Amino acid sequence: MMQGMFADYLELTKPKVVLLIVFTAVVGMFLAVPGLVPWQPLVFGTIGIGLAAASAAAVNHVLDARVDAQMRRTAKRPLPTGHLTEIQALGFATALGIAAMLVLTLLVNPRTAVLTFLSLIGYAVVYTMFLKRATPQNIVIGGAAGAAPPVLGWVAVTGEVHAHALLLFLIIFAWTPPHFWALAIHRRDEYAKVDIPMLPVTHGVEFTRLHILFYTVLLFLVSLLPYLTGMSGLVYLAGAVVFGIWFLYYAIALMRGQDLALPMRTFSFSIVYLMGVFIALLVDHYIQIRA
After folding, report:
1. Whether residues 127 and 188 fall in one domain
2. Structural domain that includes position 216
3. Among 64, 104, 133, 264, which residue's Cβ finds the most Cβ atoms within 10 Å?
4. What is the chain's percent helix, strand, coil content, to nearest 5?
């Protein structure tokens, strides 16, 4: 029973999403300094940002519990199945959030704590409670919260919001719409069933495909900024171009094809894309240092 409850609480944190968030935050930490990251902001910054992301995910479960129960993709989550109550989930989210703020304030720096708290509120409350149900541009506007982790990582190490950190923010911000809209196409009928105004529901699949292509082109251009501004070198540029063209291939194929599996393949590749671009940033950073 204890093992099953632990699995339910773990599922509340959306561990795959949290790992991606923590990964981009850690890359932001390493890019913020010319050498190795001091151990304290690396360790405690990672823990604090990860706990905050897990807290936001748990709040999302609570706020979406009734909708989740009606969607095939989410019907087996701990709240719809009754494995956990909303009070238990909310208490868990609160504990994680308090722990995150204490770790970041006392062991990292207050600015990171404030920015992380604003990101938590932006995703868990502003996006989930309001934007998600108010406008088909929900994921564009709400994407700011999801784009914050590399900035949080940078601030955890340096204590300041640097222009280069904002370039990392822009990459994730531009990446979020094509990433999520590909999934929304695949789950269009489920979103329609629960009256969530995702773009494929309100404007149709063809219109959404066009927007995915537009944002993928925008993402490709934004991804060149670290090189064009001198933040990164040729190694990163090569990675950004390769992964960018690869993503464009998926976006164009999505526009042209009727393959029902293509939206999910595009969604899955978008995660590979983001990890690949951030790894290229990291590799380029340390190659430049050695040079």
Report:
1. no
2. 162-291
3. 104
4. 80, 0, 20
- Where b means 16+ CB within 10 Å and e means fewer, 166-184 reads bbbbbbbbbbbbbbbbbbb
Q: What angle do CA 53, 115, 152 make, to 5 degrees?
A: 65
Kindly tell me the sign of the dihedral angle through the C-alpha atoms of 182, 187, 191, 192: positive
Tally of CB atoms within 10 A around 207: 13
Distance CA 221, CA 219 (A): 5
| Residue given tokens 């951030």 in the structure block | 278
pLDDT number for residue 190: 87
Cβ atoms of residues 125 and 135 within 8 Å = no
The yes-or-no verdict on residue 48 having pLDDT over 60 is: yes
Q: Is the pLDDT score of 211 beyond 90?
A: yes
Model confidence at 157: pLDDT above 60: yes
Q: What is the mean pLDDT of residues 205-220?
A: 96
- The confidence score (pLDDT) of residue 289 equals 65
CA distance 29 to 52: 17
> What dihedral angle (degrees, nearest 10) is formed by the CA atoms of 226, 232, 234, 237?
-30
pLDDT of residue 1: 54
Strands (E), 47-206: none
pLDDT digits (tens, 9 = 90+) for 75-100: 888 888 888 999 999 999 999 999 99
Do residues 194 and 79 both lie within one domain?
no
**Rounded average pLDDT over 217-223:** 98
Number of domains comprising the chain: 2
Are 113 and 25 in the same domain?
yes
| One domain for residues 2 and 17 | yes
